[in-house]
Design goal:
Layout: H1 3-11, E1 21-22, E2 27-28, H2 40-47, E3 51-57, E4 60-68, E5 77-84, H3 87-101
Antiparallel strand pairs: 1-2, 3-4, 4-5
Helix pairs in contact: 1-3, 2-3
Length: 103
């Protein structure tokens, strides 16, 4: 995962991030011997029921999240796509967007 995305996730209080280790170049999952934090399964799990899918597009990965808005005039599902070069970065973008919106 890109260092800046991991740092943003930590700053946004991604679940478990209080235990991450930051060496200034990489953020690790608790110790400097664990995989870079967070892993793709952790990101998808944190997206919860809003996660729709992860798919490979030509040259990038896409994560789609879906939300149901009962206050919206259309009272239906809304979808948003988040694209990045890696799967983890696409999922990180989606989590950051959801948590900055308070969705």
């Amino acid at each position: 995962m890109d260092y800046e995305f991991a740092k943003q996730l930590r700053d946004a209080r991604f679940p478990g991030s209080e235990n991450w280790y930051d060496d200034g170049k990489t953020i690790w999952g608790g110790t400097d011997t664990e995989p870079p934090a967070p892993t793709l399964p952790e990101l998808i799990d944190a997206l919860g029921e809003k996660f729709s899918y992860l798919t490979k597009m030509p040259g990038y990965w896409r994560v789609r999240i879906s939300t149901f808005d009962v206050d919206d005039e259309t009272s239906g599902y809304e979808t948003d796509d988040y694209d990045a070069v890696t799967m983890e970065d696409a999922a990180a973008k989606a989590w950051l967007a959801l948590n900055s919106k308070g969705v």
